[in-house]
Design goal:
The protein has about 950 residues and is mainly β. The protein folds into 3 domains: about 110 residues, Immunoglobulin-like (Sandwich), CATH 2.60.40.10; about 140 residues, TonB-dependent receptor, plug domain (Ferric Hydroxamate Uptake Protein, Chain A, domain 1, Beta Complex), CATH 2.170.130; about 650 residues, Beta Barrel (Maltoporin, Chain A). The protein contains 8 helices and 54 strands. It is globular.
Length: about 950
């Protein structure tokens, strides 16, 4: 047997060496085909060779190379053809025995009669080829996602697309969609969002950052993610800048359309709940009748009545039309997108108390995890997303162009949240904590957000060395929450009889175990009604001057400019608590919502007037930013260039709130000036390889509501928000280095590192406010911190099959004092931890298939986000962490004929949950006779667990 095996191994080795010999000795003809003007490889170009006895065709593959193998030795004629390019002349190439012949071809496009400006101004910016070119030639460190990549990805939203970019993690809304980005471990507040290079305001009712789920992906040509700054960029982006480059007028007629449908798997197992939103009052009683006294009749019940059914299929539609007129001087484009989606979430949440826990290392159960109540919730949300853009550009001559751009984005969410709130009662039943009472709450919400932006700009070349560009812009973001209504019923529960049993828990040695439960009558509780709206307006102007000159025979460009922004924000909140009817000292027995009666008793004018007269959520905020910069770009050699300069930004802020005049922080005026130097260096190792290094200083301005020092319970689902009038802005020193290699059209390899030093970082802390019994989220400065890491991004095709992978390691450290109990006394102990929102490990991996001949693209994508702190606790070891998550998505599309594409997309195939935990001993909450529901481990306490399930989409696209 051993002899036979040895013979088989020798035979296998013989064939391997024989195959290698013939492979090595076979004649090969290969080369690349590129654009003669810009050097870009023309993937898919057809290459033909022939002589008297041999002829063969092939194409330029995804690695940018055409290859003929096993070509008989001889002299051949070769020519190339590619749509949109002039067919090449016949080339003569000789293939000799046992050698590789190389012939590279450069082709001229059919538009060579146009001027250089015409070609570059309206080039196809949405291609993968253009994205790689932008990454390669950018002044700073950048990642680019093309419209072509977006189209074949599993995603239909900009926010979900960004979750696949190296160095980026996301947080998710109650719909399961990505909403905000965290870049290189820097929380969402450290990043900014631009449309065509212009900063836009946010509809968020508390913060500056823009909810990216408002953007349908079909409106963008590409997404630029800047990870370093130059002096001509605004200085308040320490993590990065997300620049959405929207579609613009094409070179010729363009008509694109799409229609798709889909369904959410969550509704295979439960119905969708909805309400009649036409009955919602758009204004609060206090807005309709300022200073008046509301009556129960001002709060109609119709929008609280819900119905359940299977939801209709999702709808996704878009249309783009563009062309050029007046001898190509005038470009026009209109694009619109509409989505009507039904999404859901099954959620479990427990509410933390304000109990100070023992220090880490105590073997006992932490009292912080002895929760008093929990919520089991079902969310049903209808999302209507509308996006529209219009773009006009006019070229007076090759040196003068102007453009007008407008966009409108809206995301309307109509949500029903059905909650069972269990308040625990000090006994156990059927192996779990028993309840003292059970509340059933129905909340209906209309959440309306929109952003519009109008931008007018121009580029002008005055003379050969001098040029300038300018932009003026007006933007507005609005958020409305009209009549967020919640109806509550409650019934008491008690054990029929109990026995005392040991638990093994030294903090709770014995527990009463019930053999049955008695439910009391269902009673109507107080009803909540809230109206909220806010508007954020920006007026901005930008000017950039450029002067080209030679210094010591090398090219240099001097630039200087400035910007002005006038921001006004107003915020309004009016909340009402409708008292239930008391009959003989007992709340009214529940029958139906229409029969429930509420009344403001006697002199109860506090509830009847609403909260707006004293609500801290009612404020106006003015912010003026003036910025100026000077910089130079100098080509030290053919391989080395540097951009260096300084930017100055002056910040003026003023706000006034509805707080009492005697309350500190009712109003404030804040001013400061920052000087922000930066330098970016690039060294080209070869035409395809480069090294980049940079340093820049940046800042973080506090959010608007972060400065107003009064508890606001409307800010968060579970915990209120209280501002901090002593909050300081953050200053960050940023260092970056990256190696880049672009070996092919679709191939790329990037490896880099970064280091950030934060002075006065801002984080949100969960703590007691003003000595009260409840916990609130409070923004706080925590001394200094550091954040550093490494980033890998690689993509490679092997024939039609490709692989894409990116991985980011991030490590941040900040040391802060925390409260602990030592020998029964509350004291302070320092704790070193990561920054809020920073995950140590982030990775994405995709398996790709692309066949240009068949028009087929397919993608299987895996995304991983490691654990990270979701909320910082004021108590030692009790921070709330988000558990690691892994998402699996898939997509495929097939071209049918010349104009049609069919596609399929699937998201969250693993049904990955969103889970928040406290890293404390959970032995007695997880197991035993007194455990809590929905606990996942004895090693940590689960405080939230959401499931969204998979989603599926099918559709067809039309391209002309």
């Amino acid at each position: 047997m051993k002899i036979l095996l040895q013979k088989k191994r020798c035979l296998i080795l013989f064939f391997l060496f024989t195959g290698f010999y013939f492979s090595a000795s076979a004649q090969i003809l290969k080369g690349n085909v590129s654009d003669a003007k810009n050097g870009e490889t023309l993937v898919g170009a057809t290459v033909h060779i022939e002589n008297i006895s041999f002829r063969e065709n092939t194409t330029v593959k995804l690695d940018g190379v055409y290859t003929f193998k096993n070509v008989p030795a001889g002299v051949y004629k070769l020519h190339v053809s590619f749509i949109g390019y002039k067919t090449t002349q016949d080339y003569t190439v000789e293939v000799t025995k046992e050698n590789t012949a190389v012939l590279n071809i450069a082709m001229a496009d059919n538009a060579t009669a146009l001027t250089e400006v015409s070609v570059t101004e309206h080039a196809n910016r949405g291609s993968d080829r253009a994205a790689r070119s932008d990454e390669k030639n950018s002044n700073n460190t950048i990642n680019v996602v093309s419209a072509q990549s977006i189209a074949i990805s599993p995603d239909v939203l900009v926010s979900n697309v960004l979750a696949r970019v190296s160095g980026i993690s996301v947080d998710r809304s109650s719909t399961g969609d990505a909403q905000h980005v965290i870049i290189r471990g820097m929380d969402k507040q450290y990043n900014t969002t631009l449309i065509n290079g212009i900063k836009i305001p946010s509809p968020d009712n508390k913060n500056r950052y823009v909810p990216l789920d408002i953007f349908p992906a079909g409106l963008v040509d590409r997404i630029d993610i800047y990870k370093t700054l130059t002096p001509d960029m605004e200085g308040d982006a320490s993590g990065g800048v997300v620049n959405l480059v929207m579609k613009t007028a094409p070179n010729g007629l363009r008509i694109d359309g799409e229609v798709g449908t889909g369904y959410s798997q969550i509704f295979f197992d439960r119905p969708f709940a909805s309400f009649d939103r036409s009955t919602v009052n758009s204004k609060a009683p206090g807005e309709i009748n300022p200073g008046g006294i509301a009556t129960p009749a001002d709060f109609p019940y119709q929008n609280l009545i819900t119905k359940t059914a299977n939801p209709a299929p999702n709808l996704d539609a878009s249309l783009t039309i563009g062309n050029r007129y007046l001898n190509n001087k005038l470009g026009v484009l209109f694009s619109g997108s509409y989505q009507n989606l039904y999404q859901g979430d099954n959620s479990f949440t427990v509410v933390q108390t304000n109990t100070v826990g023992p220090p880490v290392g105590n073997s006992g159960q932490n009292q912080e995890t002895a929760f008093q109540s929990s919520y089991n919730r079902q969310y049903s949300t209808q999302l209507q997303r509308v996006g529209a853009i219009a773009s006009l550009d006019y070229k007076f001559d090759p040196n003068n162009t102007i453009n007008l751009f407008a966009t409108y984005l809206a995301l309307n969410q109509y949500r029903v949240r059905q909650t069972q709130q269990d308040t625990y009662g000090g006994y156990t039943y059927q192996g779990y904590r028993g309840t003292f009472s059970v509340d059933n709450l129905t909340e209906t919400r209309s959440d309306l957000q929109n952003i519009y932006n109008i931008t007018l700009g121009g580029k002008h070349k005055i003379s050969n060395p001098f040029s300038f560009d300018w932009t003026v812009s007006t933007s507005q973001a609005t958020h409305k929450l009209p009549d967020d209504a919640e109806f509550d019923t409650q019934y008491g529960t008690s054990p029929t009889s109990t026995t005392s049993q040991p638990t093994g828990n030294p903090n709770e040695p014995n527990v009463s175990v019930a053999d049955g439960i008695t439910n009391g009558p269902t009673l109507v509780q107080n009803e909540s009604r809230i109206w909220m709206h806010n508007t954020d307006k920006d007026l901005s102007a930008y000017l950039n001057l450029h002067y080209n000159v030679k210094i010591f025979g090398r090219d240099a460009q001097f630039s200087a400019g400035g910007m002005l922004r006038h921001k006004t924000r107003d915020n309004f909140v009016d909340s009402y608590n409708l008292p239930n009817t008391i009959v003989n000292g007992v709340p009214e027995t529940y029958t139906t919502i229409p029969n429930a009666k509420f009344m403001f008793v006697g002199a109860d004018t506090v509830n009847a007037k609403g909260s707006s007269a004293t609500d801290p959520g009612v404020y106006t905020f003015t912010e003026n930013i003036q910025g100026a910069y000077a910089m130079v770009k100098y080509y030290i050699s053919d391989k080395l260039d540097v951009i260096a300069g300084v930017r100055g930004e002056h910040t003026y802020q003023y706000y006034i709130s509805q707080l009492p005049v005697t309350f500190p922080g009712k109003t404030a005026t804040i001013t400061y000036t920052d000087y922000l130097p930066s330098v970016n260096v690039k060294y080209a190792l070869t035409d395809e390889q480069a090294l980049r290094a940079s340093y820049y200083k940046s800042i973080l301005r506090p959010a608007f509501a972060d400065l107003i020092p009064y508890p606001d319970q409307t800010a968060d689902e579970t915990y209120g928000h209280i501002g901090n009038p002593y909050l300081q802005h953050t200053v960050i020193n940023n260092y970056d280095i990256r190696y880049e290699f672009f070996p092919g059209v679709f191939d790329a390899f990037m490896l880099g590192g970064f280091y950030k030093q934060l002075i006065n970082p801002i984080e949100t802390v969960l703590e007691q406010a003003n000595g009260g019994a409840s916990l609130y989220l409070t923004p706080t400065n925590f001394g200094n911190a550091q954040n550093y890491g490494a980033e890998l991004d690689a993509k490679k095709f092997f024939g039609n099959i490709g692989a894409s992978i990116n991985y980011t390691y991030t490590n941040s450290q900040i040391t802060t004092p925390k409260s602990v109990v030592l020998d029964g006394v509350v004291t302070q102990r320092n704790q070193t931890r990561p920054l809020q929102g920073q995950a140590a490990n982030i990775g994405n991996a995709s398996l790709l298939y692309k066949d240009l001949h068949l028009g087929l693209d397919a993608q299987l994508s895996l995304s991983y986000i490691g654990e990270r702190i979701e909320a910082v606790s004021n108590y030692y070891g009790l921070d709330t962490w988000e558990r690691p998550s892994t998402y699996l998505d898939a997509s495929a599309q097939k071209k049918i004929g010349r104009h049609f594409i069919i596609y399929a997309k699937a998201n969250n195939l693993l049904n990955t949950p969103y889970e928040l935990i406290i890293k404390q001993n959970n032995t007695y909450n997880y197991s035993g006779i007194a455990k809590y529901q929905h606990q996942e481990s004895a090693a940590y306490t689960t405080v939230q667990y959401d499931q969204f399930y998979a989603r599926y989409n099918l559709g067809v696209k039309y391209n002309f």
